[in-house]
Amino acid sequence: MLLRCVTRTCHVLVLVLCLSAAEDFDWTKNNHGSFYYGTFPTGFSWGAGSSAYQTEGAWDQDGKGLSIWDVFSHKKGKVFFNDTGDSSCESYYKVKEDISLIKELKLNHYRFSISWPRIIPTGIKSDHVNEKGIEYYDSLIDSLLENDITPIVTLYHWDLPQLLQDKYGGWQNVSMINYFNEFANLCFERFGNRVKYWITFNNPWAVAVEGYETGEHAPGLKLRGTGAYRAAHHIIKAHAKVWHTYDTHWRSKQNGMVGISLAGDWGEPVDITNQKDIEAAERYVQFYMGWFATPIFHGDYPQVMKEFVGRKSAQQGLGTSRLPTFSSQERSYIKGTCDFLGIGHFTTRYITQKSYPTGRGGAYFTDRDVAELVDPRWPDPGSEWLYAVPWGFRRLLNFVKTQYGNPDIYITENGVSEKMMCTELCDDWRIQYFKEYINEMLKAIKDGVNVKGYTAWSLLDKFEWDEGYSERFGLYYVDFRNHKKPRYPKASVQFYKRIISANGFPSQREVESWKRKATETCSSSNQLLAAGLYIFCKRNT
Ligand code: NOJ
User: Fold this and answer.
1) Which atom of ligand 1 sits closest to the CA of residue 51?
2) Short-list 419, 322, 404, 409, CA closest to 366
3) For strand 504-505 and strand 38-39, is the pairing parallel, antiparallel, or unpaired?
4) Does residue 443 sit in helix, strand or coil?
5) Per-residue b or e along 470-495, where b marks 16 or more CB atoms closer than 10 Å to that residue's CB
6) Rounded to the nearest whole angstrom, what is the distance from the C-alpha of residue 465 to the centroid of ligand 1?
7) For the packed helices 204-212 and 291-298, what is the interaxial angle rounded to 10 degrees?
8) Where does the signal sequence lie (predicted)?
9) 125 pLDDT exceeds 80?
10) Cα distances (Å, whole numbers) of residue 349 to 119, 267, 374, 391, 541
11) 413 is catalytic
12) Which helix (H) or strand (E) holds 262?
């Protein structure tokens, strides 16, 4: 069998489809090309990223308020092993140390997020501003700048103040737009003299779908068929409002840029000669990145989303579509609110058409009428969902170029995790992943896509949401069982460092020598480290 169904959507019917589709699929038509030796444009920005809840720890220190992730992770059974981000990497106390790691890599930028409840404990600015929280971000920003590292700052990486969830229902409620705008405005006021790259939301797809539709993420609501669409609607409006706030009040003084970071898996038709598969794959991408990008670049939801959700809502007997609508004023207000597009990309799926009956009510996943498949030969070294398919990255980037008018792009997340819950500093699969994905990005730049920067995800191993600490994405290994949370470089640090200093891949001979050099010392450090730890190596599947 060539194709494998993805668990979430895997039904007997799809399995049959997998088997039959597999027989017809012609792999020879998918020659994805060879490695491209060359360098990136001068000034290309190399970075690594993190987010507040995933790394800071200090969840209840110095006047910080509760976020929905504090409360969610403290409930039993929500996160793998009942892990929490209470202390995580303790980055709140390790600004100097983390900056030395960033310097070791010679990064041009560092992407981090501001915890809203750390600086506004209740979420509502007029209640109270926590100066201790402001001081922490001041010192992080100042230390980065002293070391010539550009801060790229995300305003919302999923940690909504709990009070706003309790009182108003979080992103289900339109009032979030103003509260978020006040928080963003405070950040522009206090940090905008030094921060020039702002990202309003990180991966709003996950906020909407996993927070309000499937409930796998905080706040854990399962508002099937409506929750995700409503949350997304308010998020898009909040993003636009914050962009306008910056544009009207701060841009001329501060000269920065405001963008959004969208997640986008690529969807490739199972059979590129089959019109139904082609349309299904297009729908998959439109329901994913297009859901947010189309309003922001063109003023409204993708036509295909309006059609599908509208038709299914009518079939359910609803008077209006479950997908909310923008008024014409809103459309023109939202259109063009993006100085750069951030893209978080990790993986690809094969897509085929699959019709879902509407009888039992609608849901985001059945509204799309698609089935996701994977090729079992794709490497899947880490998270269950993360197959390494480098060529999908180039296709996604070209899609963005043609659909949204060739915007400036910053890759805000790209990387791979590992399955083993034990020390593994010899991460050759991560070296391979970075090498090939970064190479596909280089090819996309040669295709004319305006990629200006790349952010490896992530600087450190950290709290991986509902997976707890079981999935490690870091360039640096963090020993979470030691309360000092020491960091150790994985071999990929050495490899990424060389890509950065060469600004790409100068020649085959050189690139091949990098891998040898990167892995030269990792096995001895691995043994040393393992000897000092109570190591248990457990497959986490
Ligand atoms: C996207 C999220 O933004 C990030 O926080 C997470 O670590 C990665 N996906 C990997 O799952």
Assistant:
1) 5
2) 322
3) antiparallel
4) helix
5) bbbbbbbbbbbeeeebebbbbbbbbb
6) 8
7) 130
8) 1-22
9) yes
10) 39, 5, 6, 11, 21
11) yes
12) strand 257-263
Q: Nearest residue CA, atom 10 of ligand 1?
A: 464
B/e letters for 314-350, b = 16+ CB within 10 Å, e = fewer, are eeeeeeebbbbebeeebeebbbebbbbbbbbbbbbbb
Bridge partners (DSSP) of residue 539 are 420
Closest Cα to residue 376, out of 361, 392, 360, 387? 387
- pLDDT at position 8 is 46
Q: Which of 413, 436, 464, 467 is catalytic?
A: 413
pLDDT tens by residue, 416-455: 999 766 678 999 999 999 999 999 999 999 999 999 999 9
* 357-401 tens-digit pLDDT: 886 678 999 999 999 999 999 999 889 999 999 999 999 999 999
C-alpha of residue 352 to centroid of ligand 1, in Å: 26
Cα of first residue to Cα of last residue in the chain, in angstroms, is 22
Lookup result for tokens 């640090």: 493
Ligand 1 centroid – CA 189 distance (Å): 28
Structure tokens of 90?
């303790």
Six token digits for residue 495: 């490899």
**H/E run at residue 263:** strand 257-263
How is residue 65 annotated by DSSP? P
Pocket test for ligand 1, best of 55, 414, 464, 472 (most atoms within 8 A of CB): 464
Q: Using CA positions, which residue lies closest to atom 11 of ligand 1?
A: 464
* Residue 26: band (very low, low, confident or very high) from pLDDT cuts 50, 70, 90: very low
Residue 106 φ/ψ, nearest 5 degrees:
55, 45
* Candidate from 113, 216, 380, 473 with most ligand 1 atoms within 8 A of CB, to mutate: 473
C-alpha distances (whole Å) from 424 to each of 178, 437, 467, 527 are 45, 21, 18, 9
> Ligand 1 pocket: which of 413, 416, 461, 462 to mutate (most atoms <8 Å of CB)?
413
Pairwise CA distance, residues 258 & 243, whole Å = 6
pLDDT of amino acid 7: 45
